[in-house]
């Protein structure tokens, strides 16, 4: 297993290298000019040219690429062309809101969705099953910003229980963090609960018809044990996959939710950087996202073998 | 950082007693989070303002972005400032002009300090003005005729000219696009093409560096050592008296969220409210929406003079004739309370306002006359490449309405949707329209940025050195020189009238209307000044 993990970690190198080259070239081929964005509307072409030169944008592509790769090897993500501050500082400021919201959302989703999916499969074709499936369809179908606005209207504007927007780090004020995180997490969880519950139900339906489940029941094992020890564990692989990829999606930024609830996460950072053609920030964010995906996929694979000992690498 | 998992799942939470206690604590904390409980922070007067854009650049010389200018007015001060009558007033300095009008002597007032405690000196002003003069178009004109600019002692700055330049004081007092803010000389030594990294100014607010998140939020705190002038505040001039401890600017990408936050009392002020969302605010007794910027924005269309069809003045005229300001403003804004039909290139409500030559624009357009003129011209059906930004609501409607008007007049229009930043990059291209260039685009300007021939970026006829579109127009340049020589407002108005007529005659650009942007504030915020730049001095926050 350790060898496998090491091999997978080594495989990150070519993936990240490919992503780095691809992103660098793609950005330079994309129309747009960071100098024009930096200088504002009234700048003349001559002024823009001077700014381009001072930012190094007039250097040959190979020189620009070499500079960037050199910085990366030194662990330096570069300086934002627009804000003129280190990209690592910007990412450091913005990644924690995203991680905290993602963790809270995924925990909430798993706690709600897995029991819902198990119950739906157990009570197949009863009102409980229909209720869970109806919720799933609704969760998939309603756009996330609509759910967010409804929550805000009810809990913030009408009832005034929770704040509309914003983010406070848990280290600064845990109560404020919770109060501000509840609505965005509930909003995001609506989709993930729908997704995970549906996947849990489908997987459970498959295994509940298996011989070993029938045998367990015949031996008099309690229904709770049958469901959660025998069936759920065998149905867990696809559920785990969906949870893992969902978490990766959440970490890589949920820009709509971040916008609706004004959370300064990396989704907004990425979109703002793209709109401003802030190349070093975009490059850093895409590399970071790629690394997150590779890491989470690795974690999922490792988890497979823990849950199902038959899986060996 | 304490992770969420650590916070929620520690061992003590497993006992019932601890769980109950924790639930109580969390409930209490939730209440405090919503502002229902009192806190130590309540004693600190903080205004939270949702600004139109996030602050990402901190150098007010390198960019003309409004948010950076607004930030600079918090942090820095200016030698001379314009008041609500468009009259320059002493701010950091008084001035005297020699009889031959070649020497301007500025004397700094007493008590001026930078935020690090150092005294503001004439050497700081000299360095700041020289850096500004490299970048600002008005400043460049002054430095073209400058003999020397020298700090003769700690408080005296002497500016000598090779020839009289009557608009010098007006140029120094202007509030847009690049006002000459005064920085420490060491900061102003930064080349004008490189961004400064210092936050030291001498304005009424200090920058709270630890709380700065580019594009997200920026916090200013009262500079206790700032000495306001004694005159009442008026626009950018007068006494800048600060009554709050802190002002926090936040950016919210979603207007609906901003409005919800204002309604729930989480923020105190919203700089720009979309007109279509105003009815939501009207339902609240705790929020007021109002117009505080009396001038607003001029929306314009700019054509490329380098390539057919708009290298032909007759075709440019046909295009202008087809366009109706009413149609464009009606589509863009809708509510007539928030727009003006205005054909003045210097904007309506300004001293140089004049609408000569804009008759068809302000009277609903004349498609038949446009058709006739186009038929008489050499137009051969070449597609007009019209760039349409799709991601900025304040400039996405104009191209659509204009495209239809142009089609009605007989033009073939190739409207190309793109994001604003692509447009910004592409408009700098002098390639043929069929090879990545363009024929026409639309944008908006704050009226103080276009209200004089010396600062209006479009009214520059220096060909490749002109603003995008690159008109070569010697007659316009001659008129601008006449404007520089004009010594009185009456003389300036007379020249401005000629420039207006000329600009419309050659269709330098097409003003497509002037619109106003409402603001909103909590009723707890009182005494906000009317001003084209949102200012936070004189504002009070009631309990």
TrEMBL record, chain A:
Membrane topology: Multi-pass membrane protein
Coiled-coil positions: none
GO process annotations (BP): transmembrane transport
Keywords: Cell membrane, Membrane, Transmembrane, Transmembrane helix, Transport
A matching Pfam family: BPD_transp_1_N
GO CC aspect terms: plasma membrane
Residues spanning the membrane: 9-27, 99-122, 134-157, 177-197, 235-261, 281-307
Cell cycle in keyword set: no
Keyword Iron attached: no
Chain ranges of the ABC transmembrane type-1 domain: 95-300
UniProt-annotated location(s): Cell membrane
Family statement: Belongs to the binding-protein-dependent transport system permease family.
Protein name (Swiss-Prot/TrEMBL): ABC transporter permease
Lineage: Bacteria, Pseudomonadati, Pseudomonadota, Alphaproteobacteria, Hyphomicrobiales
Automatic annotation (TrEMBL), chain B:
Keywords: Signal
Pfam families the record matches: SBP_bac_5
SUPFAM superfamilies noted in UniProt: Periplasmic binding protein-like II
Keyword Signal: yes
Localization (cell): Periplasm
GO BP, one annotated term: peptide transport
InterPro entries named in the record: SBP_5 (IPR039424), SBP_5_dom (IPR000914)
Gene Ontology terms, MF aspect: peptide transmembrane transporter activity
Ranges where the Solute-binding protein family domain occurs: 88-448
UniProt similarity note: Belongs to the bacterial solute-binding protein 5 family.
This protein's name: ABC transporter substrate-binding protein
Protein's organism: Roseibium limicola
């Amino acid at each position: 297993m350790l060898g496998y993990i090491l091999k997978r970690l080594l495989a990150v190198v070519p993936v990240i290298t490919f992503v780095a080259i691809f992103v660098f070239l793609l950005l330079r081929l994309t129309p747009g000019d960071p100098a024009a964005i930096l200088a504002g509307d009234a700048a003349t072409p001559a002024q823009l040219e001077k700014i381009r030169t001072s930012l190094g944008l007039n250097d040959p592509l190979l020189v620009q690429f070499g500079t960037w790769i050199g910085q990366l090897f030194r662990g330096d993500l570069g300086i934002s062309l627009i804000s003129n501050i280190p990209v690592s500082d910007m990412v450091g400021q913005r990644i924690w809101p995203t991680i905290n919201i993602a963790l809270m959302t995924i925990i909430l989703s798993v706690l709600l969705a897995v029991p819902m999916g198990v119950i739906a499969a157990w009570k197949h074709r009863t009102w409980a099953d229909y209720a869970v499936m109806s919720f799933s369809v609704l969760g998939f179908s309603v756009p996330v910003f609509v759910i967010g606005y409804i929550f805000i209207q009810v809990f913030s504007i009408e009832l005034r229980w929770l704040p509309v927007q914003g983010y406070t780090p848990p280290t600064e004020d845990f109560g404020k963090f919770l109060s501000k995180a509840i609505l965005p997490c509930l909003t995001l969880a609506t989709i993930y609960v729908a997704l995970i519950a549906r996947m849990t139900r489908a997987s459970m339906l498959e295994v509940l018809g298996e011989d070993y489940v029938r045998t367990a029941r015949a031996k008099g094992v309690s229904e709770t044990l049958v469901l959660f020890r025998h069936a759920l564990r065998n149905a867990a692989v696809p559920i785990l996959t969906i949870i893992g990829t969902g978490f990766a999606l959440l970490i890589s930024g949920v820009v709509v939710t971040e916008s609706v609830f004004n959370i300064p996460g990396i989704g907004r950072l990425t979109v703002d950087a793209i709109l401003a053609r802030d190349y070093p920030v975009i490059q850093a964010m895409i590399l970071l996202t790629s690394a997150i995906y590779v890491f989470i996929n690795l974690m999922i694979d490792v988890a497979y073998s823990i849950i199902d000992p038959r899986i060996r690498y | 950082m304490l992770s969420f998992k650590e916070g929620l799942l520690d061992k003590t939470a497993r006992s019932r007693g601890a769980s109950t206690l924790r639930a109580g604590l969390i409930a209490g904390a939730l209440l405090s989070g919503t502002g229902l409980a009192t806190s130590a922070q309540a004693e600190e007067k903080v205004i939270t303002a949702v600004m139109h854009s996030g602050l990402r650049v901190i150098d007010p010389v390198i960019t003309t972005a409004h948010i950076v200018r607004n930030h600079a007015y918090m942090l820095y001060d200016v030698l001379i400032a314009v008041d609500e009558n468009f009259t320059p007033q002493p701010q950091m300095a008084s001035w005297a002009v020699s009889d031959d009008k070649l020497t301007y002597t500025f004397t700094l007032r007493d008590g001026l300090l930078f935020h690090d405690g150092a005294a503001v000196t004439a050497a700081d002003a000299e360095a700041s003005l020289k850096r500004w003069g490299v970048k600002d178009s008005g400043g460049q004109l002054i430095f073209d005729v400058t003999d020397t600019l020298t700090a003769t002692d700690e408080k005296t700055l002497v500016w000598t000219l090779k020839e009289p330049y009557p608009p010098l004081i007006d140029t120094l007092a202007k509030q847009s696009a690049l006002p000459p803010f005064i920085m420490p000389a060491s900061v102003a030594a930064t080349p004008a093409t490189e961004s400064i990294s210092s936050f030291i100014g001498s304005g009424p607010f200090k920058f709270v560096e630890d709380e700065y998140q580019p594009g997200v939020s920026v916090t200013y705190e009262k500079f206790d050592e700032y000495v306001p002038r004694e005159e009442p505040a008026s626009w950018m001039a007068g006494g800048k008296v600060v009554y709050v401890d802190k002002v926090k600017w936040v950016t919210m990408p979603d207007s609906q969220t901003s409005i919800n936050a204002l309604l729930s009392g989480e923020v105190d002020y919203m700089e720009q409210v979309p007109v279509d969302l105003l009815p939501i605010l009207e339902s609240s007794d705790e929020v007021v929406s109002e117009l505080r910027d009396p001038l607003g924005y001029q929306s314009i269309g700019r054509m490329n003079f380098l390539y057919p069809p708009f290298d032909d003045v007759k075709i440019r005229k046909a295009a202008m004739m087809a366009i109706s300001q009413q149609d464009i403003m009606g589509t863009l804004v809708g509510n007539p309370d928030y727009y003006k039909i205005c054909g003045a290139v210097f904007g309506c409500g300004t001293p140089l306002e004049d609408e000569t030559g804009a008759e068809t624009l302000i009277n609903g357009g004349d498609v038949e006359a446009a058709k006739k003129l186009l038929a008489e011209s050499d137009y051969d059906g070449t597609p007009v490449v019209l760039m349409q930004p799709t991601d900025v609501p304040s400039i996405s409607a104009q191209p659509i309405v204009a495209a239809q008007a142009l089609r009605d007049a007989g033009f073939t229009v190739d409207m190309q949707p793109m994001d604003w930043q692509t447009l910004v990059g592409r408009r700098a291209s002098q390639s043929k329209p069929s090879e990545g260039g363009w024929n026409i685009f639309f944008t908006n300007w704050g009226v103080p940025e276009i209200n004089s021939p010396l600062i209006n970026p479009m009214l520059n006829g220096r060909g490749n050195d002109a603003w995008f579109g690159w008109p070569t127009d010697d007659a316009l340049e001659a008129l601008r020189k006449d404007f520089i020589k004009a010594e009185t407002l009456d003389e300036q108005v007379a020249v401005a009238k000629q420039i207006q007529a000329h600009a419309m005659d050659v269709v330098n650009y097409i003003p497509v209307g002037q619109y106003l942007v409402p603001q909103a504030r909590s009723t707890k915020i009182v005494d906000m000044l009317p001003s084209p730049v949102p200012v936070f001095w004189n504002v009070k926050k009631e309990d």
